[in-house]
């Protein structure tokens, strides 16, 4: 589909898109906390939403008229590659849904918050201030921002449930390292998926080693 509207590329800051990303992720966390719903049932709901959005993507890419309506409605948050391709929404929801399905609810919640905050922080810093390329379009500065944001999120969250201890600092530090590496390596797989599910996997392993939860 051709459009006279100019859509930003992945190499532009696109602040509104990042705000939507943050609000969407934290909104999912808030819904879970306010509804007090069973984590397994919640995972099914989120996975169902992922399947629904996948169907919508398939249909709008198949029918140009439907795609035109979709693009006009969502153009303020779309990238140029998403006009005639999949958006990150289905994988965003898939990663969150699988995290709640496979892991303890605290780990799933943390992974969702990390996805909501560390991903846009990494992207913004990498695009605006990234000077040292590490892998394809990834930069050291972006990865460092991902590490710092993850460390702060995990340390703050941990102190809500446990007294400040060396174990919390170690857990936060290595979760930050793992998340930065996951983000750095997510060049072929959408980080909307990897930053939640694989970060949750890393935290589950760390949790076994440190016996935090």
UniProtKB/TrEMBL annotation:
Keywords: Membrane, Transmembrane, Transmembrane helix. The chain crosses the membrane at residues 15-35, 41-63, 83-103, 109-130, 142-162, 168-186, 193-212. The keyword Transmembrane applies. It comes from the Bacteria. PANTHER family: CTP-DEPENDENT DIACYLGLYCEROL KINASE 1 (PTHR31303:SF1). This is Phosphatidate cytidylyltransferase. The lineage of its organism: Bacteria, Pseudomonadati, Bdellovibrionota, Bacteriovoracia, Bacteriovoracales.
């Amino acid at each position: 589909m051709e459009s006279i509207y100019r859509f930003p590329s992945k190499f532009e800051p696109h602040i509104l898109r990042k705000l939507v990303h943050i609000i969407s992720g934290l909104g999912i966390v808030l819904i879970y906390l306010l509804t007090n719903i069973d984590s397994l049932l919640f995972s099914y709901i989120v996975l169902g939403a992922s399947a629904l959005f996948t169907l919508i993507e398939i249909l709008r890419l198949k029918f140009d008229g439907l795609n035109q309506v979709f693009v006009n409605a969502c153009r303020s948050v779309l990238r140029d590659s998403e006009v005639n391709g999949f958006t990150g929404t289905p994988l965003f929801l898939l990663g969150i849904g699988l995290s709640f399905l496979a892991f303890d609810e605290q780990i799933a919640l943390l992974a969702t918050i990390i996805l909501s905050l560390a991903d846009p922080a990494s992207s913004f810093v990498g695009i605006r201030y990234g000077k040292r390329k590490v892998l394809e379009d990834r930069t050291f500065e972006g990865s460092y921002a991902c590490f710092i944001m993850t460390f702060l999120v995990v340390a703050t969250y941990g102190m809500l449930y446990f007294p400040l201890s060396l174990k919390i600092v170690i857990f936060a530090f290595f979760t930050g390292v793992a998340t930065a590496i996951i983000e750095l390596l997510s060049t072929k797989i959408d980080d909307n998926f990897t930053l939640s599910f694989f970060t949750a996997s890393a935290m589950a392993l760390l949790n076994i080693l440190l016996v935090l939860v």
